[in-house]
Amino acid sequence: MSADGIVRDHYRQFADWLAQQTPDAIERKRMEADLTFRRVGITFAVYGDGAGTERLIPFDLIPRIIPASEWEQMQAGLVQRVSALNMFIDDIYHEQHIIRAGIIPAEQIYRNAQYRPEMQGIKVANDIYAHIAGIDIVRAGAGEFYVLEDNLRVPSGVSYMLEDRKMMMRLYPELFASHKVAPVEHYPDMLLDNLRSVAPMGVLDPTVVVMTPGMYNSAYFEHAFLAQQMGVELVEGKDLYVTNNAVWMRTTHGPKRVDVIYRRLDDDFLDPLAFRADSALGVPGLLSVYRAGHVTLANAIGTGVADDKSIYPYVPDIIRFYLSEEPILNNVPTYQCRKKAELDYTLANLPDLVVKEVHGAGGYGMLVGPASTKEQIDDFRQRLIARPDGYIAQPTLALSNCPTFVESGVAPRHIDLRPFVLSGKTISMVPGGLTRVALREGSLVVNSSQGGGTKDTWVLES
Amino acid sequence: MLSRTADHLFWMARYTERAENTARMLDVNVQTALLPQSEEAARHAWRALLGISELQHGYDQKHDAVTQRDVIEFMVCDPSNPSSIIACLTEARENARAVRGTLTTEVWEVTNQTYLDLRRRLHGGQLHKDPSQFFEWVKYRSHLSRGVTLGTMLRDEAVNFLRLGTFIERADNTARILDVKFHGDDGEARRDFYYWAALLRSVSGFEIYRKVYRDVITPERVAELLMLRADMPRSLLACMEEVVANLREVRNDVSADTERLAGKLHAELQFARIEDILEAGLHDTLTEFLRRIYELGNGVSRDFLVPLAA
User: Fold this and answer.
1) For chain B, domain boundaries
2) Do residues A227 and A210 lie in contact, with contact meaning Cβ atoms separated by under 8 Å?
3) Which residues of B181-207 are buried (b: 16+ CB within 10 A; e: fewer)?
4) d(CA A172, CA A456)
5) In the predicted model, what is the mean pLDDT of residues B195-209?
6) Which residues of chain A make contact with B252, given a CB cutoff of 8 A?
7) Which of A245, A252, A289 should one mutate to test binding to chain B, selecting the residue with the greatest count of B CBs within 10 A?
8) Do A249 and B309 touch (CB under 8 A)?
9) Are B20 and B139 in contact (CB under 8 A)?
10) Is the predicted pLDDT of residue A263 greater than 70, yes or no?
11) Residues B227-251, mean pLDDT to the nearest whole number
């Protein structure tokens, strides 16, 4: 819906259909969806809620609809952005042209907690680092897309994108007959193809595995889902070991060599010999095999250096530097509090700004100025003054809304979109992504850990 | 297949089968307890059940006296008893969850749904009002789990390990169900008839017995049916045929001894005569069988499930 309450063209057909549905019928469908999600076990574990506690992510029955023209623009912007980010990571771990050109100060790299000196000078297959990226995008006006965050480490949510679609097709097959919704179901196929394309040199028929921290991880459902959909093994660290400069998995028929690991755990936990010694989740010696080029990790170690909020403000310049192109997707204007003038501006305008921790994630540790009390704002002021380089600030955008079922009926709620961009020999993606919706009125926070929900995302074919 | 995956599959099937067999065993006792009998005899029957399940000690630590209600409570709902139905079905589901990507969606959903429904069923005292109905439900869910496994899964190693788990567990349980009687006393003939009839029903063998023997029920024939008939689905011989066949499918470089163990056990049953077994002593024969099944389970673990190091 547009700001003045008029139904946008591409929603019109859906709105007509919705107007004919009785509240009862909708409620029945909603219950059916809940039951199905519960039976299928599409749940996520909640940290600090006791091991094994599983919750459903609220699923909204109204799809988010994107016209083909908007998607094409977004897609072009995503290809551009992810290419540049991959070139940036490669450069950072090799020649560092961008630092020498004076575009990014060296300390922004070296002081970045996600920078991995172990990666310096390492050759990775096809020079690809962020094989799977989940870029969070909001729309603030016609054709105006803003990137909120580049998730280049282990972005989650693609399984919800696929399950939400499956659910909508099951509940409302008639809608798919009347709308030309671009399919997304081939994502696992594309992912497998992509992972195989980045196997170590000389490996013609690579063995791909998905690596999970285990079934108590919040995204375990997704890890198991992707392994199953791709038909590859889902491994834990203890299933793998390193010998003779190669990675092997323990099978009922003895050791089997592993070539590509789609790992869903953070750098810190990958190899207790190289990173956190207290972690039992990883594989001792993995880094040495990786450095020798005998196994591919997707995503590469050290990709976090490029998706940190402290690097985010530089992404438009990164695009200009490597591609000599103007960015297609906007950055949200960002004030870097480590700079004196920008800190002063931030402190003076706190009630209007969103302040985020540089290394924060999951919607924790942030201040949403317009929605905060004076006490909360004062508290953040103290934190900013004490440690300015730990924060950035952004204006609150006039985010687009999407009609959403809430207690009182259908009402507008803020949404964002996370398309999943695959980088291998080429860059590819399925049309759509995970739409997250802030279920609380006025809230801008869509993270599932903060009570956000999801919607099916329809890219209409023209 | 990953050793860990095989391990989860093997135990998922074992726990599902164990829950089913616990339900069957409890049902025999519930049925026979309906007959007129002394309090002492009834207590004895429940005590025999605990003994054969090796749960006497665990039970005594929680309960002062042996009553039907407490034994059922302990064997169905007590999460601290690792063989209780609730513990088994929870474990089956946890193992399934760990390898849900290896299972078909249908197999996973049946296992998950069983787990979700179990809690609802145990809530509200229905169990003690009509225990047989609850046991029926457990058996039904186990049938469903096996059926959906065979009906939807690729016949590959995953199925072999599921089947190995099912039949090793079932062989163990059938031997125990048969042996319960010999933990008990030798009661009067009339009660014996009802006992053996209930036992046959508990292994879905009553109609089969009539079809096979066309004669009155005798303990000897019940023993023969449950031990030596290859066409009786829950007999020891039928279980061993499945174990041998599935082991052959997954054999690896180190599994020869385990195959030999299974093959010998199978051959002995195949060529055994019930008269000889009874003469040697049924209880001793079953005890020896249980020991060897235990050894076989360990062999499978050692050869396939515990990771083969480099």
Assistant:
1) 1-153, 174-309
2) yes
3) bbbbeebeeeebebbbbbbbbbbebbe
4) 12
5) 86
6) 252-254
7) A252
8) no
9) yes
10) yes
11) 96
